[in-house]
Design a protein that fits this description.
The complex is a heterodimer of chains A (306) and B (391).
Chain A lengths: L2 H32 L6 H19 L2 H27 L4 H23 L15 E3 L5 E3 H23 L1 H11 L1 H6 L4 H27 L5 H16 L4 H29 L2 H26 L10
Antiparallel strand pairs in A: 1-2
Helix pairs in contact in A: 1-5, 1-6, 1-8, 1-9, 1-10, 2-3, 2-4, 2-8, 2-9, 3-8, 5-6, 9-10, 9-11, 10-11
Chain B lengths: L1 H19 L6 E7 L6 H17 L9 E7 L4 H13 L5 E4 L3 H13 L3 E4 L5 H4 L7 E3 L4 H14 L4 E7 L2 H13 L3 E8 L7 H10 L3 E4 L4 H12 L7 E4 L8 H4 L8 E3 L8 H14 L5 H19 L6 H9 L11 E2 L5 E12 L5 E13 L13
Parallel strand pairs in B: 1-2, 1-3, 3-4, 4-5, 6-7, 6-8, 8-9
Antiparallel strand pairs in B: 10-12, 11-12, 12-13
Classes of the chains: A mainly alpha (306), B alpha/beta (391).
């Protein structure tokens, strides 16, 4: 096998993995700390991309739009927490699922009404919309490298926040012993507000980074949401480290599966049956992985509170 | 908002018409399109085009009171079957039209045709319906899926392209696109990559293409998938080394998302806004006025479907008799916005295909522009397998 090709496909896998990590880290904190199932997390990914697309067009500056877009995502997270999520924090999972599913419908249709159902574009500046040469005649899009770097940066930041700060200690404690934390006089509602808004900002940021590659459209959050739930189930609910490892694992398995499943099937099957069996197998692989992990470690690779 | 306004107006007009002439024979039409989800941008264009045609005729097709029931197939074949049964049994429609995606059409054709109703596809053109499974009750105002891709293969041949990698979504129309391209392409197909319908990240596929070093990629990615693929191609190192050829991918539905990256791409189509005939000039101008954006060929096909039904009703003197309507439609009782138009024995059009390039208008909007004719009054390759007599 060509190692340069394999290396580039691994980069592609990491790229998808870090996007998933940005989405899943917020989701796993909200789920783990507050035991809150937030189906609207994918909507926050989509809204972040729309905020950035609109603000980049409005300000005429890519970087300014990116920063303002993240700020708008944060603000949206605060507004949603204050108007909706706060009132559901002590409700059952069914109520949370119903209410946040309603938010998906409301925001997806609302955005289609305002911006249209078609894809919008986040135009990268020309200096970013190019590729950089790697080895052996392969080049790699610069923006995808930036996504990997940004994902690493956020992972480090989250690790520092959670492991080294008082706030992080409360988050860790809240994910395993919420009653004790509350009994010690910590305002768990405020903690939730901060965690939630920060998660919404990360999701919006991920939507912007991915939207510059794929275009921005109202339903872009739906498929990401499903993958993000796979990530947190595999990684262990509430564990940011688990989310990172699982996101990279799923990004790699999905990408390498798409890249090589047809060729590998071609070793056993005829060309035409491999061409139909390969893609089918590739789209199943991450769910097979999830089933295997759950069979061995039912609470995920890194159970909460590790 | 403008869409809603227009629909509101026509609904009021329809109700007024229905109450004013109680005795007249009403025409009941079911318009099914994909109106939600990422693919809805195509369905909305089909619906807008159709409703624009209806509005132009004062809400009365063939001068008759007309009711139009619009349903959303949600891009799910099972939902589509349930909705089409509603249309047939609850709304008693005489004609089912619209239908953007081939997998949806393959799911609903049986219930509609078995009920003896007319089925007019305003976009989907799956190969089975063009061949052995053809029906005298089926008409298309679009094209058989393969044909546009055959036209692109002819273009690739003329450009001296020898090695091609196909990237297609894994469903009926993607397979038809591959079959159509392969039918006419004289060079070598290096690889065929099928991706799940709705996939937006093509990093893995484009890397594979880079390792295979073909002369060109040929792709068919309708809607948002096309936006994603063209943008990612332009950020990759393939630009300048591997050409990107596409059919039904870069058009007015995806151009607002692709923008400048689309300039320089070549595709083929049976229609573009610059088609030089009086009916098209009226259509393009009134579409832009009503919806604030240039129409795509999807809208043109929807508009033609409304005009086809109108023309057939005028021929039958307003009588809603399926057999009479069918015969009237065979004679092409309308002027298509694409110009020359005939029906083949399988109900698909015989029409011209043109090489299409992308231009940026002075107002900043991107549109397709038809250039040289690449196929003259083309027939699809499946018509021979259809046992119906010529129409």
């Amino acid at each position: 096998m060509d190692f340069a090709l394999l290396a580039v496909q691994i980069l592609n896998g990491l790229d998808l993995g870090f996007i998933l990590f940005l989405v899943a880290s917020g989701l796993t904190l909200v789920f783990g700390v507050m035991d809150f199932i937030n189906l609207a997390h994918g909507v926050q990914y989509m809204l972040g991309a729309y905020f950035a697309a609109a603000l980049i067009a409005w300000s005429g500056s890519f970087w300014l739009g990116l920063v303002l877009g993240a700020a708008a995502s944060l603000a949206m997270g605060l507004v949603l927490e204050w108007t909706v999520f706060r009132h559901l924090a002590r409700a059952g999972h069914l109520e949370q699922v119903l209410a946040t599913f309603a938010l998906i419908l409301i925001f997806t249709d609302g955005v289609s009404m305002i911006f249209g159902a078609g894809a919008l574009s986040i135009n990268l500046p020309a200096s970013l919309a190019q590729s950089v040469p790697l080895t052996h005649g392969f080049s790699y899009p610069l923006w995808r490298l930036i996504i990997i770097a940004a994902g690493l940066g956020v992972a480090l930041l989250l690790w520092a926040l959670i492991a080294k700060t008082r706030l992080g200690m409360l988050v860790r404690a809240g994910s395993t012993h919420p009653q004790t934390v509350q009994a010690l006089g910590v305002d768990i509602d405020r903690l939730f507000l901060m965690v939630f808004a920060f998660g919404a900002m990360l999701a919006g940021f991920a939507g912007t980074m991915a939207g510059a590659l794929t275009g921005v459209e109202p339903t872009m959050g739906d498929s990401v949401l499903i993958l993000a739930f796979v990530v947190i189930v595999v990684g262990g609910v509430g564990s940011v480290r688990g989310a990172l490892i699982a996101a990279l694992l799923i990004g790699l398995v999905d990408t390498l599966g798409r890249a090589f499943a047809t060729d590998i099937m071609g070793l056993f099957l005829s060309r035409s049956s491999a061409a139909s069996a390969g893609p089918a197998l590739a789209s199943m692989l991450i769910y097979v992985l999830m089933a295997l992990v759950l069979a061995v470690r039912p609470s995920g690779l890194f159970a909460s509170g590790d | 908002m403008r869409t809603k306004y227009l629909l509101g107006i026509s609904c009021v007009a329809l109700m007024a018409a229905a109450t004013a002439s109680v005795k007249a024979d009403p025409v009941r039409i079911g318009l099914m399109a994909t109106l939600s989800g990422p693919a809805s941008v195509l369905g909305i264009q089909v619906r807008n085009g159709f409703m624009l045609g209806v509005k132009e005729l004062g809400g009365k097709l063939g001068g008759q009171p007309t009711t139009i029931t619009i349903v959303d197939d949600q891009f799910k074949p099972d939902v589509a079957v349930a909705r089409v049964k509603d249309l047939l049994q609850r709304d008693h429609v005489d004609i089912v039209t619209g239908i953007v995606f081939s997998n949806i059409l393959m799911a609903v054709e049986k219930p509609v045709l078995a009920a003896g109703k007319l089925l007019i596809s305003a976009n989907a053109g799956p190969s089975p319906l063009a061949g052995a499974a053809c029906s005298p009750l089926y008409f298309s105002t679009s094209f058989q899926n393969d044909t546009v891709h055959m036209a692109m293969a002819d273009y690739a041949n003329a450009e001296g392209i020898k090695k091609v990698v196909l990237i297609m979504p894994n469903y009926q129309a993607g397979k038809d696109a591959a079959a159509g391209f392969k039918h006419d392409f004289k060079g070598k197909i290096v690889d065929e990559i099928y991706t799940p319908l709705g996939q937006m990240d093509f990093s893995s596929e484009l890397t594979k293409v880079a390792s295979e070093k073909p002369d060109a990629i040929y792709t068919f990615m309708p809607g948002g998938m096309g936006v994603a693929l063209v943008k990612q191609y332009h950020q990759s190192a393939l630009v300048g080394k591997v050409k990107l050829l596409s059919g039904d991918t870069v058009d007015e539905t995806s151009l607002p998302g692709i923008q400048d990256a689309a300039l320089g791409t070549i595709s083929a189509s049976h229609w573009a806004p610059n088609m030089d005939n009086p009916q098209n000039k009226i259509f393009v101008a009134s579409y832009e006025k009503a919806y604030g954006a240039p129409p795509s060929f999807y809208a043109a096909q929807g508009y033609d479907a409304a005009k086809l039904i109108d023309g057939a009703l005028r021929k039958t003197g307003g009588k809603v008799n399926i057999e009479a309507l069918r015969k009237a439609m065979d004679g092409v009782p309308f002027k298509s916005v694409r110009g020359a138009f005939k029906f083949n024995n399988n109900g698909f059009p015989i029409e011209n295909f043109y090489q299409v390039s992308i231009i940026k208008r002075p107002d900043g909007k991107f549109v397709t522009q038809a250039g040289a004719k690449v196929m003259d009054m083309a027939k699809d390759i499946y018509a021979g397998a259809c046992k119906l007599p010529p129409r």
